[in-house]
Amino acid sequence: MSDHTVIQPGHYKGYPTTMTRASLDAMTRQARKDQDGFWLEQAERVHWHKKPTRGFEGSFEGDVSIKWFEDGLLNVSVCCLDRYLTDKADQVALIAHREGHGPAEKLTYAMLHERVCRLANALTHLGVEKGQRVAINLPMVSEAVVAMLACARIGAVHVVLFGGFSADGIAERLVDSGSVAVITASVAYRGAKIIPFKEMMDTALYKAGADSAVHSVLVVRTSDDAVPMLPGRDHDYHDFVDSFEVDFVPVIMKAEDPLFMLYTSGSTGKPKAIVHACGGYIVWASYTMDMVYAQRPGDVLWCTADVAWITGHSSVVYGPLANGGTTMISDSLPAYPHPGRWWDLVDEYKVTMLFSSPTAVRAMMADGDDVVNRHDLSSLRLLGIAGEPISPDAWLWYHDVVGKKRCPVADTWWQTETGGIVLGPIPGVQSLKPGSASRPLPGIEMAITDTRGRVVQGVAEGSLCIARSWPGQARTIWGDHARFCQTYFTKVPGLYFTGDGARRDADGYYWITGRMDDVINIAGHRLGTAEVEDVLGEDHRILESAAVGVPHPVKGEGLVVFIMPRKDSATELTEEGVARLITQRLGRYAAPEAVYLVPDLPRTRSGKIVRRLLRKIASGETENLGDLSALTDPSVVGAVCNRVWGAM
Ligand code: 6R9
C-alpha cells in the first residue's frame, strides 16, 4: 500500500466534530509558540482544588527532571467523579459486562462515587496512607475501576498488575513496588478457562515472604467456589467494604505527587515501573481522549484493553471519566462462546466507539465477514486501535467491514511512558491513511533522528523521538531514576527516545516501523527478550539462550527461543520443558511459539549473538541471510537452520 491511499475527512459526512482544520492548526501553532500558556489553558479541563499557574519546569538533559503544573492542587477522583455529581449524577459512568453473568452492571456517576468512597474508607481503615502503594490484580470487573479511583482518592499510588503474570512475576513486582495492600479476585474467566487469581496471589505472597510489605488482601468473589482466606490478612471485598461510609473527603494532592505506577518491559531483564504524576497525567488523559474520541452525551466508549495496560488506565478509566463520558468494560473474548461475541455486545449496549487492538482485529478478520455482517453495528461511529502496527489490509477490513466505510478508524500510537495518545488523527478533520498512526497531537514536537542522533526534517526515516515535554510524560522509573535517564534520554541527548522506529511522509504522517530495541510486542504486550533470557539463565542446564520476535499472523509478533544446553545436560533438557519454564516464570502471555535446542549460537567475532540472523531463520527466511563472514563460525548457521527448518 502506498502513501497515496488517503481517505479525506469529507468522506465521513456529518461526523460530529467541533473542530476544524483551522482551529486544529491554530492549536498546534499556539502550543509551539507558548507551551506553558497552551497547557495551562488545557489544564482548565479538569477540576483543581487550586489552579496551577506554572507550566513546564525541568529538562531532558543530565539528571532529567519533568514537572508540570507544580503549584496546582487536586484530587484525580474528584476530576472523574465529584465534579459530575451536580449535572451527571444519574448518567451511566460505567457499564461492566461479565461473560455468562447476565446483563451488565450499570453504575451512574453517583453510584460509582459511592463505591469509590466506601473503598477509600475501607483502605484507610486498613491503614493505607497517602503515598503508599496498593497493588490491584483484577479481571475486568467494576471493582477494578473502583479500586483505581479509591486509591486516587486517598492519595495511594496504584500498581495494576496484569492477570497474565506468573506468581513469580507478581511477587517480584509486589516487592519492587513495596505494595502494602492488594486488591484481587478469587478467579478470572478467560473464555472457558478459569484462572485462579487468589491462588496465584497467595503463591506470590508466599514467595515474596518477608520482602513483601503487604498487610491486607481484599478479595472480590468472582465465583461461587470458596477460596482459602488467611485470617487477619484477607478480607472478602464486599463483606468488608460495603459497610463503610458512602462519603470520603478526598486527600488533596500536589500536581507532581504520583498517581500510579505501571510495570512495562524494556531492553534489560528487570521489569520497570513507570511513574505518572496526578496533575499532568489527568490533564493529558482528558485532552488526548477528547481530541481523538470527543465523547458526547449518549456515547458509549468500549475500549477492550485490560486495565493492567496504559490503554486501560487512560482510555478505559481516567480519560473517559475525566471527560464525563460513559465507559464500558467486559471480560469477554471476541470469539467466545462463539465468533462475533463482541458484535453482540456492540449491538446490545449500543457502543458508539470501539477501541481495540490490531491483534483483535486480525483475529476477527480471520473469522470472516459473514460473522460481522450478521450483526447490527449501526450504533458505531468511531473505531480506534492502539498497541501495535496494523497492516493497511487489516485497517481497511476494520474500516470497510466493521465500520461499513462510515466510521473513521483512529490508529493511535502511544506508550506506557507517554501516558496517553501521542500520534493519532482528529476524526472528521484530518485525512486518514490506512497503516499510518497519523500525526502528532497539538503540543507534541515529534522528531525523527538519523543513526548519528541528528534530527532530520521533512521526509525521513529513523528513531522516533519527542523533542519537548508534554504533561502526560512519565516522571521516572520507580526506585531507579538513573535507569530512566539512561533508557530514554541518552540515545539522543536532549530528546525523549521512544524505542520505536518510524518513517515520516511528505504530508507529515508517521508510519511506525517497530521497536528498535530488544522489546517484542506480542498481541500488544511488551516483552523484553532480556527478561526471557534472564529467566533461562537461572537454569543450570542452559549454557546460553537467545530470544527473538518473529512475525505472527494474529499476534503481530511471537516469541521464539534458541537454547544452547550445557553439554552434560543435553539429554535432560526438552524444548517443551523450556517453554513451560518460561510461562511459569513470566506468565502465559510469554508462551513461546517455538523453542529450539541448538548446539551453538551464531556470534560475531566480539562474541555477540547475532539475533538479527536468528530472527530471519526463525521466520523461515531461507534467502538473504546476509553476509555471514563476520561470524566466528559460519557453520553454526547451518546447524541452526537444520534444526529450525527441519521442524517447519
Ligand atoms: C499504548 C501502548 C508501547 C509500544 C510502542 C510501540 C507499540 C503502540 C502503536 C504501536 C504501532 C501503533 N505501539 N501503539 N506500534 N502502531 N498505533 O501500547 O503502550 O504497552 O507501553 O506499548 O507499542 O512499539 O513503543 P505500551
Structure description:
The protein has 648 residues and is of the alpha/beta class. The protein contains 19 helices and 31 strands. The strands form eight sheets. Strands 12-11-8-6-7-14-15-24 form an eight-stranded mixed sheet, with helices on both faces. Strand 16, helix 10 (310-322) and strand 17 form a beta-alpha-beta unit. Helix 1 (21-33) crosses helix 2 (35-42), helix 6 crosses helix 7 and helix 16 (529-537) packs across helix 17 (575-586). The protein is globular, with a radius of gyration of 24 Å. The two termini are 30 Å apart. The mean pLDDT is 94. Bound molecules: ligand 6R9. Ligand 6R9 is lined by residues 264, 309-311, 386-389, 411-416, 437, 498-500, 512, 515, 521, 524, 526. One of its GO terms (biological process) is acetyl-CoA biosynthetic process from acetate. Residues 25-80 form the Acetyl-coenzyme A synthetase N-terminal domain. It comes from Acetobacter garciniae. Keywords: Acetylation, ATP-binding, Ligase, Nucleotide-binding. GO terms for molecular function: acetate-CoA ligase activity; AMP binding; ATP binding.
Write the layout of secondary structure elements.
Layout: H1 21-33, H2 35-42, E1 56-59, E2 65-68, E3 73-74, H3 76-80, E4 92-97, E5 105-108, H4 109-125, E6 133-137, H5 142-154, E7 157-160, H6 167-177, E8 181-185, E9 188-190, E10 193-195, H7 197-208, E11 216-220, E12 234-236, H8 237-241, E13 253-254, E14 258-264, E15 272-277, H9 278-292, E16 300-303, H10 310-322, E17 326-330, H11 341-348, E18 353-356, H12 358-366, H13 369-373, E19 382-386, H14 392-402, E20 409-412, E21 446-449, E22 455-456, E23 460-466, E24 476-477, H15 481-489, E25 496-504, E26 510-515, E27 519-522, E28 525-528, H16 529-537, E29 542-552, E30 556-565, H17 575-586, E31 594-597, H18 611-618, H19 635-647
Parallel strand pairs: 4-17, 6-7, 6-8, 7-14, 8-11, 11-12, 16-17, 16-18, 18-19, 19-20, 30-31
Antiparallel strand pairs: 1-2, 3-13, 4-5, 9-10, 14-15, 15-24, 21-22, 21-23, 23-25, 25-26, 27-28, 29-30
The structure holds ligand 6R9.
